[in-house]
Design brief:
Helix content: 55-70%
Order of helices and strands: HHHH
Shape: elongated
Largest sheet: none
Distance between the termini: 67 Å
Strand content: under 5%
Structural class: mainly alpha
Length: 172
């Protein structure tokens, strides 16, 4: 009931986050390039290029995780194999980003990261068990109102318990 909407929400959030991360990293690369200052002797062009490449790679990672969530939403089947691993790794990344956000940025960013983490975990957990139809009933023979009986039956039809009591201890 809640599985598909959660998968859709996770897909949209991860796509938006992919664009946001890539844009912020690209902007940071442009700022470093225009400052034309070195940090501890590093070349500004290398820092700018590495920031842009890191933004693209990180954005593609979140976009790939968003594609996995989108496929889960479209197929209404649990993620398997590499897709499950990607979603678990995205949950771990959001937990770490949440911890850094708490210390560096503040509680609103922390709450956002924890909310995304919760959505990803909810997506993974709602598809964990196969769902039974609501009208499914346990296998009970029609003629027996008490349900199935435990233990094997003797040829006469009497129920015999497979568990026998232990003999009473004796003392000398």
């Amino acid at each position: 009931m809640v599985r598909r909407p959660v998968a859709w929400i996770v897909a949209v959030v991860l796509f938006v986050e992919a664009l946001g991360i890539a844009a912020v990293q690209w902007f940071m690369g442009v700022v470093v390039d225009r400052q034309d200052m070195s940090l501890a002797g590093l070349d500004p062009d290398v820092m700018s290029l590495s920031s842009k490449i890191g933004g693209i790679v990180f954005g593609l990672y979140f976009a790939l995780c968003g594609v996995v969530a989108l496929l889960v939403a479209l197929r209404n089947r649990p993620p398997a194999g590499l897709g499950r691993v990607l979603l678990i790794s995205a949950a771990v990344v959001h937990a770490l980003l949440g911890a850094f956000a708490w210390g560096l940025l503040g509680w609103p960013e922390f709450v956002f990261m924890v909310a995304v983490l919760g959505l990803i975990v909810l997506l993974l957990m709602t598809y964990d068990r196969p769902q039974e139809p609501a009208d499914a009933k346990p296998d009970v023979p029609q003629g027996d109102p008490e349900g199935p009986r435990a233990g094997p039956e003797t040829p006469e039809g009497d129920d015999v318990s497979p568990v026998r009591p232990a003999p009473a201890p004796t003392t000398p």
